[in-house]
Predict the 3D structure of the following.
Amino acid sequence: MASRTYTRRQVAQSLGLATGALIASPSLADATATPEQTEGPFYPVVDQADKDIDLTIIDGHTETATGDPILVRGRVLNTAGKPLTDAVVDVWQANHHGRYSHPADNNPAPLDEHFQGWGIMTTDEEGYYGFKTIMPGAYALGRSASSPRRCRHIHYKVSHPDFENITTQMYFEGDPLMEDDIVLKNLSKELWPLLTATADVDEETRLPVYRFDIVLG
C-alpha cells in the first residue's frame, strides 16, 4: 500500500492554504501516548487509486462529496515531544450519511460515490500531516433508523519504523453522542481529551480546522 511524503508546503497547497497556515504545534515534553482504539469492522478492503489528502473529491470526478468540508491537521511525535518524520498516517471514515464504502456495512444510509473516504499520507520533517475531508456522519449500529448511533469519528492507523503501530480514533469536541458511545465508554474519561479534536477556523479557507496530534509511545 503506497503512501506519499508531503512537505508542509505541499500539504498547505493541496488544501488550498497559504504556506504558513498550518497550525503551529508546541513540543510536548513527557506527553502521554495516544490511547489505542478498535480498528472497527470497516477498514477498506477494496483498493482504490486515489488515496491522497483531499477526501472530498475523487480523481477524475467533477462532483465533490456531500457534506460539510473540514480540515484536519496535526503532528506525530514521541513522548519526549520529538517530531517523527516519515510516519505513515492512514485515515478512513464514514460519509456524510454515516455509511462506509465497505461491503460489510449494510446499514440503510446512502453511499456517496464522490467521497474518497480513505487517505494515506506521510509526515514531513517536522512531524506534520494534514488532510481535507467532510464531517463524518454518526452511523447507526443496526439497520433501523431508530438504532443507537456511534458518535462522529475518524479512524487512524499510524506507523513508524522506530515504534509499534497504533490504531486509534479521533472524536469531535462537543459531540453529544460521545457520552454513550460504545467504544469511548471503555476508555477512562481522563483520557478522552487525548482523542478529542478541538476546532478553529482556517483564515484562508474559512473552513473549520480540527487539531489532532498523535503521540507514539
